[in-house]
Amino acid sequence: MTTTPEDRTSAVDDLLCFALYAASRALTAAYRPLLQDLGLTYPQYLVMVALWERESMPVKDLGDALQLDYGTLTPLLKRLEAAGLITRQRRIDDERSVQVGLTPEGSAMREATGAITPAIGAAIGMSEAEVERLRVSLRRLTSNVAGRG
């Protein structure tokens, strides 16, 4: 049987890190058109999802939840604040801490995201059980590599 160049995998294709990288890029790209009408980037969407769950939280807790450092998170928050979706305020009980909360516009935006999860589910093309197994495996991998496992 003759193999064609398309049949062979490259050394890059055999790397787990590349498979994760390529999957992440593909999934993020699938979100892009869904978020474009809302004026959100994928990282901004993650911030909003976290805030829709808790309404308000310190920047540190938000960074921990999203696994983002302060230097990455701050510009995201500034853009969301400029768009009128969130507020940032120094906490009265701790001036060093900044509390992030939703504006009424930010809270209302949640309704406009209802079609995102089903659209991404369709794009993934995997059963709910397969997605859950993958999610569990990826969380375990993250924990192990980060030294928390």
UniProtKB/TrEMBL annotation:
Coiled coil: none annotated. InterPro entries: HTH_MarR-typ, MarR/SlyA-like, WH-like_DNA-bd_sf, WH_DNA-bd_sf. It is found in: Cytoplasm. Pfam families: MarR. The keyword Cytoplasm applies. Keywords: Cytoplasm, DNA-binding, Transcription, Transcription regulation. It comes from the Bacteria. One of its GO terms (biological process) is response to stress. One of its GO terms (cellular component) is cytoplasm. One of its GO terms (molecular function) is DNA binding. Residues 13-143 form the HTH marR-type domain. PROSITE patterns: HTH_MARR_2 (PS50995). PANTHER family: ORGANIC HYDROPEROXIDE RESISTANCE TRANSCRIPTIONAL REGULATOR, TRANSCRIPTIONAL REGULATOR, MARR FAMILY. This is MarR family transcriptional regulator. The lineage of its organism: Bacteria, Bacillati, Actinomycetota, Actinomycetes, Pseudonocardiales.
